[in-house]
Amino acid sequence: MAVQEAMPLRSARSGFSVLNDERIRGVIFQVLLIVGIAAFASWIIHNTAANLRAQGIGFGFGILEDTAGFQINQVLIPYQETSTYARVYLVGLLNTLLVAALGIVLATIIGFIVGISRLSKNWIVAKAATAYVEALRNIPLLLQIFIWYFAVLRLLPQKRDALSLGPLGLINIAGWYAPNPILGENFWLVSIAALIAIAAAIVVSRWAHQRQLATGEQFPSFWFGLGLIVGVTLVTWLVVWAIWGPPLTLEYATEGNFGPRGGARIYPEFIGLLLALSFYTATYIGELVRAGILAVSHGQTEAAYSLGFRPGLTLRLVVIPQAMRVIIPPLTSQYLNLTKNSSLAVAIAYPDLVSVFAGTALNQTGRAVEFILITMGTYLAISLITSAFMNVYNRRKALVER
């Protein structure tokens, strides 16, 4: 009889032991969380659909095939007023990617210069870099966009009085009329030669690196590669020019009664947004670079000096490669911030994705749910792709332990 009474108690204890298992408990909590999120999403979708039906608004992405009916000033692909909303999406997406990509490159260059300058032994250089960081980092980005667009670019000459930049073209209040490159029929030969030279320079650089690891001897791979690329490209250019004519010509803008004509017009909205994003983000990148350099042990620098390395060579070959392991992870966040901050372009009417697609197109159609979902998904995809690329680069730079 005592044995029969002990059996239920033992089974109850085994049940409690199952719940006390961390792995099983974790699986249960995850399942409950997924069910809760799915239920909440289902309620949101059902509620949204009911509200749309009540207001007589349809739902579907077929609206993207309708005619847009409005013009966009800056386009990277063919576009007309008779184009569809899907074309508007592509135009806005390309404009966003253009300003984001150029902003990342420019902000990275400025940020590295500022970060290294803050650690300079020259008092004026260090204090100037510090003043730049403290000033621009504490001014809101939207205000900086307004400053560049309204207080700087609006002070340029009027259309009839364009300012000459020499070989760089003309500039006035309507934008920068840069030289417009016109490719010849045989430009592809120059492009192939340049690509072959770049590949050869990469091979030489890797060979020089392996040679230095094995023997300790340095080879000027950078200058050799640069000379190889320039030399091969220039020789090919001259040969093509001598046989078939110039592979590339530049169309310069000419002054007219109603403003410059010809050339490649770069709108002031793009210039103002690019400068504001680049200089603002560069302040944070500069601090990341400074922190990464300070994270490298000073003994590394002293060891390099004892081997006869010059300060510039020490910074480039010893300090920066080790500092990159600290810089890259937060640098990814700054790249993502710059890309998402480009949506502030709507404040100065730059035709980015938010301005023309989630703005003008949405207001014309009234289909807020579809257009906002597409815009959100696009920014999410851009962020995930950027993060994936930076994570791959970070793994390549990570310290390999034995």
Account of the 3D structure:
Among the domains are: 22-55; 85-137 and 280-397, MetI-like fold (Orthogonal Bundle), CATH 1.10.3720.10. It is mainly α and 402 residues long. The chain has helices at 2-20, 22-54, 85-118, 123-137, 141-152, 187-215, 221-244, 268-295, 298-306, 311-341, 353-365, 368-397, and strands at residues 163-164, 170-172, 175-178, 180-183, 248-251, 264-266. The longest helix is centred in the first third of the chain and has 34 residues, at 85-118. It contains twelve helices and six strands. The mean pLDDT is 87. It is 69% helix and 5% strand. A hairpin with a 2-residue loop joins β2 and β3.
List keywords for this structure.
402 residues; mainly alpha; MetI-like fold; four-stranded antiparallel sheet; 12 helices; 6 strands; 5% strand; globular
CATH class of the domain at 85-137 and 280-397: Mainly Alpha
At the third CATH level, what is the topology name of the domain at 85-137 and 280-397?
MetI-like fold
Number of helices: 12
Straight-line N-to-C gap = 63 Å
Count of DSSP E strands? 6
Order of helices and strands: HHHHHEEEEHHEEHHHHH
Name the CATH homologous superfamily of the domain at 85-137 and 280-397: MetI-like
In percent terms, what proportion of residues is strand?
A: under 5%
Q: Approximately how much helix is present in the residues?
A: 55-70%
Compute the CA-based radius of gyration. 29 Å
Largest sheet: 4 strands, antiparallel
Structural class: mainly alpha
In the CATH hierarchy, the architecture of the domain at 85-137 and 280-397 is Orthogonal Bundle
| Dominant shape | globular
Low-confidence stretches: none
> Roughly what is the average pLDDT, rounded to an integer?
87
How are the strands of the largest sheet arranged? 1-2-3-6
